[in-house]
Amino acid sequence: MSVPAMPSGSAAPPGQPRKAATAAWIGSALEYYDFFIYGSAAALIFPEVFFDESDPATATLLSLATFGVAYAARPVGALVLGHFGDKLGRKKIMVFTLMLMGLSTFLIGCLPTRDQVGGLAPVLLVLCRVLQGISAAGEQASANSMTLEHAPPDRRGFFTSFTLSGTQGGQLLATLVFIPVAAMPEDQLLSWGWRLPFWLSVAVAVVGWVIRRKLDETPAFAQQAAEDGVARMPLVVLLREHWADVLRVIAGALVASVSTIFTVWALAYATSDAVGMSRTAMLWVGALANVVALAAIPLWATLSDRIGRRPVFLIGAAGSAVTMFLYLWAVSTGSYPLTLLTGIVCFGVVYSAANGVWPAFYGEMFTTRVRLSGVAVGTQIGFAAAGFAVTFAAQIAGPGGDDWSAVALFTAALCVPPVIAAVSARETHRVPTESLGERAGLGAAQPEKVTA
């Protein structure tokens, strides 16, 4: 293995923090465009295309379950990609995850339907979804580590937030692409129209590769590799020295349930016969909420650079439990203006507090030699539970799929562990980058070296 050496105490070259943040934003936006178009398709299209032999309620439940499959694959991807990210560097993983996501998403657009190949169709769909999950497992952790380790110490919250605002940008792009697709005539939509957003992943992969291949490795990782070497088994070091923080990240990551319930279950519920809102109108709710989130995320992150990560994260986690209840109630009334307003407040403003600060909050819990592994493993186990929250919500909603209050209470319960995790965590916004993750008696511990 070869890692460029860097003098002790070196900082990122001028302009590199912004370059890293831009690469994280654009790469995450392009990658999560792929990931989120699947969520829209799973709620609106796939029940009829891949599960059309089932009754509508069962078809929707099965389709939403395939959305959760990628989250089940994420912990496995996190173990593998986290290991190699802490041994080989952040840049290599960022490029690999983008290419894998682009390929798997393009293949979804090429799949035969159930009418064409029967039960093989949903099997192939699940396989492609697993590849998407593996890719996503390493994407945010590698981009997050890259931006945090390039950022000035007093602005780590701001710069790392670009990873999540990029994710919101990808979700916005996916929604805007699906709006004209969802408005197509039914026969065209179900025969070939739904494939178009997935085929665009070819452009996603090409643009992302051009951007990320020019990015430098982080000074922190290069210095760690040059001076102390990298751990032969980063996961062993992680679980031996940082197990409590891994548990905190797992618990904190459950706040992502707010996103999956908002993006997938609420969309399916609002466009069902029980409520009767149009697909296009509800897609605009998500689009406008994401526009607001694009502005709110860096503002919340900047606030965390001043007052700390914990209070901002707590605002997002506890506030989301309340505002999701209001949002689902608004949907149940059938009032579109009320649904739009509460959707923007819940997802665009309040949830953005937790979403914007967690990249710095989680990343600062770990040392450089296990940071990517720690963030990847912790978040992806938590995100796996969040992904299947959609499936549980579909069951909790009852046979008619209209018990919104039960889903709201379920979502609020999933916000409790993130609150506990934040309350029990250390405040790290003023800790120097080179001292992050150190403990009394462990800060001077040296990892096993891997020779170049």
From TrEMBL:
Keywords: Cell membrane, Membrane, Transmembrane, Transmembrane helix, Transport. Pfam families: Sugar_tr (PF00083). The chain crosses the membrane at residues 61-81, 93-114, 158-180, 192-211, 249-269, 281-300, 312-330, 336-362, 374-398, 404-425. Residues 432-452 are annotated as: Disordered. SUPFAM superfamilies: MFS general substrate transporter (SSF103473). The keyword Transport applies. Its main location: membrane. Residues 20-430 form the Major facilitator superfamily (MFS) profile domain. It is found in: Cell membrane. It is a multi-pass membrane protein. This is MFS transporter. It comes from Streptomyces violaceochromogenes.
